[in-house]
Amino acid sequence: MNKFFILMLLSSLLFSCNNNQIYSKYKSIDHNKWHKDSIVSFNVDIKDTLSNHAIYLNLRNDKDYNFNNIFLIVNVNYPNKNKVTDTLEYRMTDEKGRFLGSGFTDIKENKLAFKENIVFPSSGKYQFNIQQAVRKIGSENGIEILEGITDVGIEIEKTK
Fold it and tell me: Is the backbone of residue 32 left (phi > 0), alpha (psi -120 to 50) or beta?
């Protein structure tokens, strides 16, 4: 009976929801091969234009990911038709080449800060488009197919 109680307690802690989270979704990458022209899109209906928010990009990678970092291009389309584009770089391994992120299996999950303490200027549908832009050293062209990324996600939370 004690084992069952402990298991239920751990499960509830592990899967408990974040009351500040207003959006969280992942999309799988076909065959874990992210083509450079493939854009992962998320449409988010934002209602709160008063609170501060944090936006995170969530990536899951497996052992086939062969780079120390990742470059992403993120386009945000606002409800008022304004557009903002950011080119971002995130570390994927430590100095010894071990994958960063959480997870006990071959899949590592990375929660990458995109925007912090922002207030959405207007309510309505925001579209977040995420594209990989990894390049090999000495190459002008991007990696045609980036292997090892299994899922791409976005998470938006209210901050205090």
Answer: left
